[in-house]
Amino acid sequence: MTSRDQLQETPCNRLFWHTAERDDAKVADHLFHRREMDVVYAMDEATLFDSFFNYLQEIKVFPHLEQLDPQKQRRKNVPFFQIVLVFLMKVVGSIKTIDEISDLLLTDELLMSMCGFNAHQVKAGSCDRGTKLRKTPMPEIRGSLCVDTVANHIVTITPRRIENFFNRCIQQLAKQGIFPKKIHASCDCTLYETTSKFKGCGSVTRKVKPKARGYRKVGELKEVLVTLYGWKVWAVYEIKTGIPLAIKIDTIEKPDNLHVLAVLEQAKENVKVFSTIDSLVIDRGFLDGKVLYKIDEQGIEFVIPLKRNMEAAKDARQLALDSDSFPPVTREVDVVHGYGKKKYTEKVLTTLVGVPDLLTCDWFNPEGSKTNTTKKDYEPIPLNAVVVKTIEIN
User: Fold this and answer.
1) pTM of model > 0.85
2) Where are the beta strands (DSSP E) in 128-181?
3) Of 4, 77, 90, 216, which sits most exposed with the smallest number of CB within 10 A?
4) pLDDT of residue 386
């Protein structure tokens, strides 16, 4: 469970975006020499959310927040917009479960005032519905909303509305000059699991090995069929900042390579006035020759790891053994792992061998298959490969 102290530590330790650094020596030196200070900010949760909401207003995100309303409320005791702000606090504050917001957010008069609730609503609640059915004594501070009310309203937002809202926000960020002129991006997809009761979600059945104690060898565990319910989210990220450029949402059973071109096109649309996508890094799940060919046609340089048993991978490794024709390049890089207090850096020595004009990628063509490779007029499309020969960790 998240505690009040942990919520207060969020600005410094638990967020992925950097807010401020504490440097007492620098502050003391400034006061000693200049004896003046412009302003003093308190690093607590109220300051964080106040600054965050002000920034959303400055870049004109609040009108897009209002468009998330699915218009399903018959009687609006509380505007849908205020419920969305409460949920945003939960996400930004890294509160894990919806039940925890009752003690951490809904009963906090200062935080709820930022969402449009007054002191009376925080103490006595926004309405008296359900009070007569209570079997336990009424708490001294009820909270501005019921936890179930927040959850039941948030789940009514459709995936299409979430997509539109997210992409509009990225367009507003692009106007602020957040992204570089030439963007090096990456594309990935992730699963968002729900229960079978969630309306509109998909399902997929997979074979997995259960985690159980008492088994020393992995082979002793038999695979079982598990059905997952939920959604799959595709996202294109800007590599340096880690900020997503576009998202696409579909049901969980869809293949990884289905929406790569769609989410890439949306990312280009979101930043087109201010930036261009120069390169794209993707993983093996998107290894589709037809899709990669269309990405290459757009003038975007793509990077993707090949499977070890592919002919192109075998040929590249064999050619990389000729050090005279393909000289290796050794470099030392700092690799960062983890976040916050668990963040650490290690030096990695990597030897790379570039193999240009590899002609055995016969799946890289407009059809995405080997169908036309037997024709007399067939000409393979050359691709460049990089072979990682050795990795030494100091």
Assistant:
1) no
2) none
3) 216
4) 93
